[in-house]
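Let's study today's protein:

:::
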Amino acid sequence: MKSNAILVALLGAAILLSCNNSTSDTTAEETLETMATYKKGYQLYTIREEMSSDSAIAAALKLTNEMGYVQVESFGYMQGTFFGQSPEQFKKTIDSASLSSPSGHYLPMQLAMNEVGPLDTSTIPDIISAAEALGQKWVIIPWMSDAWRNAEGYEHLANYLKALSAACKERGLVAAWHNHDFEFQALEDGTVPYDYLIENLKGEGVVFEMDVHWVAFAGEDPVQWFEKYPGMFPLWHVKDFAADTLTQVPVGQGVIDWERIFANAELSGMEHYYIEQDVCSADRALDCLKESIDWAAGQAYME
């Protein structure tokens, strides 16, 4: 358990360090009835410090359910376990907190390394089995290190996602990619990686989990991407930043225009959204989650 927790902490730190006016005819009022069917969820990475022991995990998950969350998106699957718990045990932990987990992040460790090359697909069946054990539909690849952020790296990533998607289809699951801001930095030939990935993968059954915060952080308009690729974003990460853009804050305390973005949820194809905050000051992760859901509870378009 201890060594696994250290691996998770190191991976989380690596990801975190690496990350540091179009309109639509659809109105917010027109989406209120639809939005009422979307359940409130959060990405478990927000409270990664709580994943230190079986009892701490169970207590944290229960507390988030008491806040009003009913879904959680997993992360941290390593060496066959989630934070030292087998997939079957972790499913029981989630169930005991009256939560469900429609999707999860699964990182091939090659993508965290500095050597770029074809990605090993031999672990795909194990990843899918873990997702199935949690009752998940979406298997999401969430990140890659700086070394991979070039034409060769994106080509290898696309090939891996094609293989993952083919395997997922056979078992009734869906493969996806989760963005940060680096996918919007043009390559030497002018190619925008996010365009490259969507164009090469949309015909392969791969979908995209849009992290709205990182799209906005990159200076992009999420709604314009919804308009360009309608229906391609069934999952969202919902997190906010302050006016300085560098400081993440609980959702609703920042500057992102959530009403406009949620007004285009149907256009995007969104089925689930997860509140997330990568950084909360002074070990306030649970407090940040509560502040976010308290705000969301008052927004009709986020019900």
Remarks:
- Residues 1-36 have pLDDT under 50 and may be disordered.
- The chain has one domain: 2-18+39-302.
